[in-house]
Amino acid sequence: MSLPDRLVIATQEFALASWQARHIAARLQARYPGLRIDLLDVSGGSADVAVHAMTDMPMRLPDGFVLAVVTEREDPRDAFVSNRHATLADLPPAAVVGISDPRCEAQIRAAFPHLRVAPLLGDVHTHLAELDDGQYDAIILAAASLKGLGLAERIRTCLSTDECLPAPGQGALGLVIPADRPELAVLLAPLNHAETADCVAAERAMSLRLDASCETPLGGFAEVLDEYFLRMRGFVARPDGSEMLRAESNGSRAAAVGLGRQVADLMLTEGARALLIPKV
Hints:
Pathway: Porphyrin-containing compound metabolism; protoporphyrin-IX biosynthesis; coproporphyrinogen-III from 5-aminolevulinate: step 2/4. This protein is of the alpha/beta class. The chain is 29% helix and 26% strand. The protein has 3 domains: 1-71 and 172-192, 3-Layer(aba) Sandwich (D-Maltodextrin-Binding Protein, domain 2); 78-158, D-Maltodextrin-Binding Protein, domain 2 (3-Layer(aba) Sandwich), CATH 3.40.190.10; 193-270, Porphobilinogen deaminase, C-terminal domain (Double Stranded RNA Binding Domain, 2-Layer Sandwich). A hairpin with a 6-residue loop joins strand 12 and strand 13 (244-252). The model has no long low-confidence stretch (mean pLDDT 95).
């Protein structure tokens, strides 16, 4: 099978998506020096590869497309960003924390009920500008996004996964290709990271089993314990953090999808269905 000498990667205009596409292009060109790569806006025509943050990847891909690669996970944690305070615990009562994710909001509300949570709208640079303008005392953003955009210096601290459990797939990128292009799968295969792929498979299987809308506060995070086993944790909650169900299990990497389903089933057995916001 001959590999292509030209590749078109779909991208979008906003900064984070552009960085993700350029990051993948740079990795491919480092491996294949003669490979010509073009970046194409998704509205401008057909592409060979689409790069997605795994947190944004649909649980069910459209017919005719496959997830070919899951890249090595970058920092999966949530970052605390503030100009005046070092940690969440340092914030005074009624301090305003900007959060864009129901998952993170529920966990922060549960742990710090004395704080006020306000929504974040727009992109990362907009969030930071609003923080600097005094609209928030602090904001919570994905650490991987800040680091990818060269803004790691804005991070005061990162929340541990015990403090704020990440979203399924957080910190990893996925590469989607047409199902009938096996030569693309071969070309991209060196970018796949087996450990991350197993973890993300478990996390997404949990989310798919719960089948909740994106408005449901839901976290899922798997970690490699050793060559053969994973630890998987998950939670669902009410948006205000007043009620939260957690589950955890260890299982074989070879059965990562089954492990994710098991964690979902543990929560469903405890009544998680009542906390899930149904899809419209």
